[in-house]
Amino acid sequence: MLELYGKPTSINVRKVLWLCAGLDLAVRHHAAPDAELLRGLNPNAQVPVLREGDFVLWESNSICRYLATRAGRDDLLPVEPQARARVEQWMDWQATDLNTAWRHVFMARVRGHADYPDDARAEASLAQWNRLMAMLDAQLARHAYVAGDVFTLADIVLGLSTQRWRRTPGGKPVLANVDAWFERLRRQPGFAAHVDNGVA
After folding, report:
1. How far is it, in rounded angstroms, from Cα 40 to Cα 113?
2. Which residues form the GST C-terminal domain (predicted)?
3. Are 9 and 199 in contact, with CB atoms under 8 Å apart?
4. Please, what is the Cα angle at 120 between 118 and 121, to 5 degrees?
5. For residue 200, is pLDDT > 90?
6. What are phi and psi of 52, to 5 degrees?
7. Looking at the chain, which terminus has fewer C-beta neighbours within 10 angstroms, N or C?
8. Mean pLDDT of the chain
């Protein structure tokens, strides 16, 4: 039995839930894990955490890689080294550059966190986020999906980030290629439940 720990409002939990829907995987979801239990499973005390018997895995992109490989879904995570590297490149970009850019403005304007005031730093965060989303738009001008012409794990992780960008208040450029791609993502199983579900 696969068990997933983490609140369903977390962008990183949602990417795993979306993938599980696409893989038609039965997963027992613990939406409000006990803090002590969570610390025992993950030294970072962060979600998501996946457990399968004695096997425990954390870091959302690693969980997505594991589940796609476990299911033999070479379309989502190719075996061929260069094709796989292209998918993982965009997954890593999402986890590092893109997530770093949006943190301040998202925490200020969506979460209302006291440590992130809605000030010039929030505007600078949004400007950097917009710049990186324009990079994604340029990539999508060349391909139907992020890493090429088929849907992959790169689309899953960046689809969630794009939903967050769309729902965060502030001035944003029109990115026609991102918009068209986001509409294509709607065809994927689990999109309505775990991506475009009213949660940023």
Report:
1. 27
2. 80-200
3. yes
4. 80
5. no
6. -135, 95
7. N
8. 97
